Amino acid sequence: MSSINPDNDNKDVASNTNVQLASVYIKAQSYIPQIEQVYQGTNPNIQEAKLLGELLQVLAEVPKGTHLFCDPILEPISIFSLTIFSFNEEATATWLKNHFDPILSVCDKCILNFARGKCKMLQHFAIQRHVPHEHVAKFNDIVCQCRGKEYFGQR
User: Fold this and answer.
1) Which of 7, 28, 54, 89 has the highest CB neighbour count under 10 A?
2) Sign of the torsion formed by the C-alpha atoms of 11, 99, 38 and 114
3) Is the pLDDT of residue 5 over 90?
């Protein structure tokens, strides 16, 4: 019986986590083409606010401790979700920050991919969408401030 043997409990937890992550991967993979279409500007029919909401729901299902930015399936979703910082959705932005901070505090590869993805997003808004520089800079400042608070131990 697994409740008696702690080793079996750990295996059960790992098994459940793997099943949960596999389910998330299936959902996440279905969104990657839409994210790329947004960045490429090839599908004007995509409702980005709706897409963002769906991506946040996928991220909510990801097991704790999952490397969101060095995982090739979850990284595009995690990066695109940064868009929430450009809206007046403080509660959702705080939830996302709290979801990202633990892994961004311990994984160098996640930090690198986070920085690269953020740059890709900034370029997309500035160059492809022609968003005014001051808006792009403000978005960057907001994201950097959130990361800075974590880095310097302020919450």
Assistant:
1) 28
2) negative
3) no
